[in-house]
From TrEMBL:
The keyword Nuclease does not apply. It holds the Pfam family DnaA_N. Residues 339-459 are annotated as: Domain IV, binds dsDNA. InterPro entries: AAA+_ATPase (IPR003593), Chromosome_initiator_DnaA (IPR001957), Chromosome_initiator_DnaA-like (IPR020591), Chromosome_initiator_DnaA_CS (IPR018312), DnaA_C (IPR013159), DnaA_dom (IPR013317), DnaA_N_dom (IPR024633), DnaA_N_sf (IPR038454). Its main location: cytoplasm. This is Chromosomal replication initiator protein DnaA. It is found in: Cytoplasm. Residues 1-84 are annotated as: Domain I, interacts with DnaA modulators. The keyword Nucleotide-binding applies. PROSITE patterns: DNAA. It comes from Candidatus Sungbacteria bacterium RIFCSPHIGHO2_02_FULL_52_23. Residues 366-435 form the Chromosomal replication initiator DnaA C-terminal domain.
Length: 459
């Protein structure tokens, strides 16, 4: 197998696991430079992308390469161009093929609508308030979004919405932009996933076009920045966004931000940005209950013009609880199964189709899982969490991990201490009592633990 074909297989495996903006940003102009002695060398256009792929996507790349070629044992990264680094055109071809593949199953009109994006705003027109299902899990965030539409730049600025993956944050924040444009067609809106924004900064630095990029983002009436937690990983990105934030805020332009966690829980976020985020409105999006999941399924089935029995929809709603994205994915699989078999979907059919969701075994809760979730949430390494560091950014997460082990696993204080580098049981008792007391008076900590628990039990 030649290098180009090998890399195309890798991209095909990785693409479905990422959002489209993330895939476009981090795998553009990548390729395989060479394969030698069981090591595949991946070519990237700049140092920042090399660091990002190494830190964030290395395991996924290595796994995909091993599946495609069992002789490959490791991956290295090099800055440069290769013949396989031609993802720009390849992406266009792949997106076109995806549309054609979706069309027979979901209807040509629906497939195009789902994948279309306004080139001026980067908003997806299908994200509107009219098809956004409101429940107890998101009613505060929805109310805040509606207030922003009525009084942009004044009522809640910035609006910071956080919650787990696939719970509708992107839908809600883009609905604000689409609604503002519907009311005032001349309003200037810009939606940007933070990874795309970071990629644009890299390109601007390389091409000496930073002034043009600053004008692009600082001349809008509404800026929507999705997944802000990624920006917090580098000082340069935070600095650039800080100045953009100030330029808009001082002119009373609306800023909307989303994240997978509240500002105080983004460990590497600079204090000056955290204070600005916390100066606005912060609202969370939680997990939908059964009734809301069923309502969402019915709404999506109606939008897709699909006729499906209530018993089938109830079965799906009962068995897929993690997030809205999985609900829609299961519904799409049911639609495709119905098209292929030319038969209506029954509950028995649904059981087979969504077996990958419903039949998955319940995940075993362990100290290792708690440690991993806490370290990922606070953006620190597991090694830092387990060893002797006394830095504040490490001590607090460590206390949280100890508290969760005691609460959910009922581990003894000495056994918890052993897991954290042989600490004395009195240290663990102090940590657990401190977190317990803080939870009584600190609502922000309550939200932190809520988000961490979701990460523990859903991943």
């Amino acid at each position: 197998m030649d290098q180009h074909a090998l890399w195309q297989i890798v991209l095909a495996k990785i693409e479905p696991t990422l959002s489209r903006p993330s895939f476009l940003t981090w795998f553009h102009d990548t390729g395989i430079a060479h394969v030698e002695d069981g090591v595949a060398t991946v070519s990237v256009p700049n140092g920042f992308m090399r660091e990002w792929l190494q830190n964030k996507y290395h395991k996924a790349i290595l796994h995909a390469l091993r599946e495609a070629n069992s002789d490959i044992k490791d991956v290295s990264y090099v800055i440069g161009q290769t013949e396989t680094a031609s993802l720009g055109s390849a992406l266009k071809d792949r997106i076109a093929r995806r549309k054609r593949a979706l069309a027979p199953s979901l209807g040509e009109d629906m497939s195009i609508r789902e994948l279309s994006v306004n080139p001026e705003t980067s908003l997806n027109p299908r994200y509107t308030f009219s098809n956004f299902v409101v429940g107890s899990f998101n009613e505060l965030a929805n109310a805040a979004a509606q207030s922003v539409v009525k009084n942009p730049g004044t009522t809640y600025n910035p609006l910071f919405i956080y919650g787990g993956v696939g719970l509708g944050k992107t839908h809600l924040i883009q609905a604000i932009g689409n609604e503002l444009i519907a009311r005032s067609p001349n309003v200037k809106v810009r939606y940007a996933p933070s990874e795309k924004y970071m990629g644009e900064i890299l390109d601007a630095l390389r091409n000496q076009s930073m002034n043009a990029l600053k004008e692009k983002y600082r001349s809008v009436d509404l800026l929507i920045m999705d997944d802000i937690q990624f920006i917090a990983r580098t000082e340069k990105m935070q600095e650039e966004f800080f100045h953009t934030f100030n330029a808009l805020y001082e002119r009373n332009k609306q800023i909307i931000i989303s994240s997978d966690r509240p500002p105080q829980a983004i460990a590497t976020l600079e204090a000056r940005l955290r204070s600005r985020f916390e100066g606005g409105m912060i609202a969370d999006v939680g997990l939908p209950d059964f009734e809301t999941r069923l309502t969402i399924l019915k709404a999506k089935a109606e939008t897709k013009e699909i006729v499906m029995g209530d018993d089938v929809l109830k079965y799906v709603a009962e068995n897929i609880k993690n997030n809205i994205r999985e609900l829609e994915g299961a519904l799409n699989q049911l639609v495709m199964a119905s098209k292929l078999s030319s038969a209506p979907i029954t509950v028995d059919t649904a059981k087979k189709v969504i077996a990958t969701y419903a039949a998955a075994p319940k995940k075993f809760l362990s100290p290792k899982k708690i440690i991993r979730a806490v370290s990922e949430f606070y953006d620190i390494t597991e090694k830092e969490l387990m060893h002797q560091s006394r830095k504040k950014d490490v001590v607090h997460p460590r206390q949280i991990a100890m508290y969760l082990m005691r609460e959910h696993l009922k581990n003894s204080y000495p056994s918890i201490g052993e897991k954290f580098g042989g600490r004395d049981h009195t240290t663990v008792i102090h940590s657990c009592e401190k977190v317990g007391q803080d939870l009584l008076t600190n609502p922000e900590l309550v939200e932190e633990l809520k988000a961490i628990r979701e990460r523990i039990f859903l991943n």
